[in-house]
Amino acid sequence: MTAVTDKAPVTDNQVPRADEPAADALVRGWLRRQVAALCMNLLIAVVVAAALWLRRSSGGTEFDGDLALALFAVWCLAFLPGWLYVRFLGQRAGALWDEYVLSLHRLGWDHPGFLPEPPVTSQFHEEWKNDGGPAYRKHLNLYRQKFDAYYGRAVADSSHTRGTPLRIETLFPVFLVTTTLAVCWVVLLLDPVFVQEPRTAWDMMAFGFLGAYSFIFQMLIRRFFQSDLRPSAYAHAMVRIITVLILVAAVHQVMAGTGPRIQAVVAFVIGFFPLVGMQALQRTAAAALRAVVPSGTPAYPLNQIDGLGIWYESRLLEEGIEDMQSLATANLVDVILHTRVPVGRLVDWVDQAHLYLHLDRIDRGWLDRTLHGDKADAGPAGHLSDGSVKATSRAGTKTRTTLRQLGIRKATDLLKAFPADRMAPDVAWGPTQPWYDHLHQVEQQGLNLSQLRTMVQVLSQEASLAAVWNWQHRGVRTRP
Questions:
Q1: How many other CB atoms are found less than 10 A from the CB of residue 329?
Q2: Quick one: pLDDT at residue 19?
Q3: What is the predicted pLDDT for the residue at 298?
Q4: Residues of the chain with confidence (pLDDT) below 70
Q5: To pair with 124 at 20 to 30 A between CA atoms, which of 226, 249, 260, 478?
Q6: Whole-model pTM?
Q7: pLDDT at 286 (0 to 100)
Q8: Within 10 Å of residue 29's Cβ, how many Cβ atoms?
Q9: Contact assessment for residue 346 and residue 338, using Cβ atoms and an 8 Å cutoff
Q10: Are 216 and 155 in contact (CB under 8 A)?
């Protein structure tokens, strides 16, 4: 299957049929987007009409300015998240194919000839041609099939294609979230007493919904500008709302003796970070059930990796990557396609994960510091980790901090600083060798040389680091 075709570029998210002019495809794509927006408006209108009818039948106040403002706010807050997806469909997405192909070649994921054809103006095209790439043009290509399954065939066929085809049947998650948001905002804004005097469990669930909405809206905005907005994002948003409401209802039972305002703040935080609510419930249950309740926090969580914040962590969780081990062993091709994380940043995260997985885990916050003490005295004098860790910190914290002070923060950094041929088991170290002085100084800083030698030998044979090395060596080259 060819990666580049001779089809004329189209200017809309719909690829015209052979008997359909490009102008007709442009109009057809615009009409479908308008129909999707109209459907969302109708769903919101039905929810609002039902709420007004119930309000009037129960003897509520007549229509006034405050009610009109509340209804307008309901429409804005419920319509905007779904509108982001409809607007996203009109963006240009053709460049995704070229970026994807170049990333495959730079990672050296397969023989050059077996990969899709890179752009003629790239440094990898001659390599692809010499490896017999033209002979495989007419054959099915696995990497092209993966791309087409996720983005659609039209995106790869033309670098000028805009967005992806809009199919109403794929918009069910968007419509479901729009309806759910409309119902929730109608309930909250038509009777906003819970903001001033939160008392009942329903009030706490309302604050939990506010936290969940804050996270969802920011998440959709970020994915909109990163060209990563898909219907799956709305399915994840729906799951988050349901999970938060259930967690808040359970945590409310635990905090029955706490002030209502504190409970409201806690509910909002749980809406933004559902893991906080789950951890609180686990610790409460562990006090009664002892060791029966398993820990929900992995030993090597993703948030310990540099540059991987809550937004990217949430995105990786959607793809089934829950900890460093899952990240280090993930299929980079699928992660690149599905997450739209910059490839260089993703490679750096994988590089870090490989190093940290070979160290003891570090202190994970207040609980670990409490279990291991909180003394102010540091380790042996003269270590690089002085002032950054305590004498009671875990071994992984000390080793990781010492390596960071030496400028080593990922696996390839360690292999560059300590080449595998110098750290081989059959290489003797003695005072007469220049390399001995370097190792002696490192040992004085608190690193165990036997541990260091073993880690270097293991990481030097790690097959998963091949793509990381390729990415570093096949990128921008130094010019004289």
A1: 13
A2: 45
A3: 82
A4: 1-29, 59-65, 90-95, 152-169, 290-296, 363-393, 430-433
A5: 226
A6: 0.78
A7: 73
A8: 23
A9: no
A10: no
Amino acid letter, 232? S
Beta bridge partners of 94: none
Q: Under a CB-based contact definition with an 8 Å cutoff, are residues 124 and 102 in contact?
A: yes
Phi, psi (degrees; rounded to nearest 5) at 301: -70, 160
Contact between 166 and 88 (Cβ < 8 Å): no
Residue 113 burial (10 A CB sphere; 0-12, 13-18, 19+): middle
The SS3 call for residue 81 is: helix
pLDDT for the residue 183: 95
Length of the chain as a residue count = 480
CA distances from 271 to 92, 178, 208, 265, 315 (A): 33, 18, 5, 10, 17
Token pair in block for residue 299: 């030993």
Residues forming a β-bridge with 92: 162
CA distance 469 to 474: 8
The residue among 415, 302, 305, 410 whose CA lies nearest residue 355 is: 410
Q: Which two tokens stand for residue 11?
A: 């200017």
Round to whole Å and give the CA distance between 37 and 278: 36
Cβ count within 10 A of residue 68: 10
Which residues are 389's β-sheet partners?
386
Name the amino acid, one letter, at 74: V
Q: Which two tokens stand for residue 327?
A: 């990240």
C-alpha span between 206 and 195 (Å, rounded)? 9
* Closest by CA position to 395, among listed 416, 372, 411: 372
Residue whose token pair is 């990781």:
400
Residue with token string 């994380």? 341
Q: Is residue 317 within 8 Å of 296, Cβ to Cβ? A: no
Q: How many CB atoms lie within 10 A of CB 139?
A: 9
Tokens of residue 189, six digits:
């804004």
| Cβ atoms of residues 408 and 417 within 8 Å | yes
For residue 74 the two structure tokens come to 């309901």
Compute how many other C-beta atoms are within 10 angstroms of the C-beta atom of residue 380.
Answer: 10
Cβ-count burial 167-178 (b if 16+ within 10 Å, e if not): eeeebebbbbbb
Judge whether 160 and 95 are in contact, CB under 8 Å.
no
CA distance 204 to 262: 10
Q: Shortest CA distance to 456 belongs to which of 467, 442, 473, 470?
A: 442
Q: Which residues pair with 301 in a beta bridge?
A: 323
Return the SS3 of 211: helix
Cα distances (angstroms) measured from residue 338 to each of 156, 217, 440: 15, 20, 46
Residue type, 39: C
Pairwise CA distance, residues 463 & 108, whole Å: 13
Cβ proximity of 37 and 14 under 8 Å: no
Contacts 24+ apart (CB under 8 A), 180-183: 180/238, 180/241, 181/77, 181/78, 181/81, 181/213, 182/43, 182/44, 182/47, 182/48, 182/74, 182/78, 183/47
| pLDDT for res 372 | 45
Chain centroid, CA 427 distance in Å: 43
